[in-house]
Design goal:
The protein is α+β, with helices and mostly antiparallel strands. Helices cover about 35% and strands about 20% of the residues. It folds into two domains: about 1-110, no CATH class; about 115-340, 2-Layer Sandwich (BirA Bifunctional Protein, domain 2), CATH 3.30.930.10. β6 and β7 form a beta hairpin.
Length: about 350
């Protein structure tokens, strides 16, 4: 037994209790995930108390309670057998052999984060609608963050995307739109073959926000891009409404209002009606600006398209009635266990 385990070993004078203690300790070592406090052996000891003579009940009961405390301590103590530190950033390439990767804690007791569970559902819906799934980046450059999206240098609209930068001039993306130029360039050959460009981009984004119940500095976005012949605003609205109704599994009341984004023209805010009758703006969207298409080498006189982006965390909040967006990034076990 290691030192961590020995701290909780007790000596019991009652032979019956001592035997049960040894049995359950061994069981814990072999199956650390089991619930010892609900074991039949411990329950039998409590039942035994009622059968004893009054003069024997006190000492026997005290030792049974002491055993229960020992078992509780064993279950709440995590044993890490690896002596090396755990690097939670997992700094290795996907092609690194398993034998050369840093040691990580076992995932047997863990569960998938609710955001990842819901994100897989969102991607599945869009894939069934014909969209390809693309991962975003967590570090990018000025061109993909602004230049390729019709933000000229010094344009005041850049101030709305207050994000984090490195001393080398790299940017922690404030939106998944940084992938739009890459998607358009990579897939523009599809247009020549009579196929549309249809992709959804997912990933984390970062902003210098004042934190409150509906704003976080780190959150997930889902970007959509669609380009083809004669694409209209009607196609955009129908696509978004179909997605939302598939995700929430019920008919929804939605509305749009004019807005401004440098990379779409016209631009809209897409809002969803809440159960209390109020409206929540969920999605920024619009027809892709001709300059954005030109930047990707696509002729805007032949092709048109639409794009959208939404904060995915807010969709999950509405689905589960979560009152504060900060819960999703807090790492609070009590909160996360509700979704296991």
């Amino acid at each position: 037994m290691d030192a961590c385990y020995n701290r909780y070993v007790m000596v019991y004078t009652h032979q019956q209790i001592s035997k049960v203690a040894e049995l359950l300790r061994k069981r814990h070592q072999e199956h650390p995930g089991g619930n010892l406090l609900r074991s039949a052996e411990l329950k039998a000891l409590y039942d035994e108390i009622k059968l004893l003579k009054p003069k024997d009940r006190k000492s026997f009961g005290q030792e049974v309670n002491q055993l229960r405390k020992e078992l509780a301590s064993l279950q709440t103590t995590e044993k890490i057998t690896k002596s090396s530190d755990i690097d939670v950033t997992a700094p290795f390439d996907v092609n690194t052999p398993a034998t050369k990767r840093p040691a990580l804690l076992s995932s047997e007791k863990g569960s998938q984060h609710p955001l990842m569970t819901e994100l897989s559902k969102v991607i599945s819906i869009f894939e069934k609608m014909g969209f390809e799934s693309v991962d975003s980046r967590q570090i990018d450059d000025d061109y993909h963050m602004f230049g390729s999206l019709n933000f000229p240098e010094g344009h005041p609209a850049r101030d709305d995307y207050d994000t984090f930068m490195t001393s080398e001039g790299l940017i922690a993306p404030a939106h998944t739109s940084t992938m739009q130029n890459r998607v358009l360039k990579k897939r523009k050959k599809d247009l020549l073959n009579g196929k549309p460009i249809a992709a959804v981009v997912t990933g984390r984004v970062f902003r210098n926000e004042d934190l409150d119940a509906t704003h976080e500095h780190t959150f997930y976005q889902v970007e959509g891009v669609y380009v083809d012949n004669n694409v209209t605003v009607g196609n955009l609205m129908a696509t978004l409404k179909a997605f939302l109704e598939a995700y929430y599994q019920r008919p929804l009341e939605v509305r749009t209002q004019p807005f401004y984004f440098p990379f779409t023209e016209p631009s809209f805010e897409f809002a969803l009606k809440r159960p209390d009758g109020s409206w929540l703006e969920l999605i920024g969207c619009g027809l892709i600006h001709p300059n954005v298409l030109k930047m990707a080498g696509i002729d805007p006189t032949k092709y048109s398209g639409f794009a959208w982006g939404f904060g995915f965390d807010r969709l999950v909040m509405m689905k589960y009635g979560i009152e504060d967006i900060r819960h999703l990034e807090s790492g609070k076990i009590e909160f996360l266990r509700q979704f296991k």
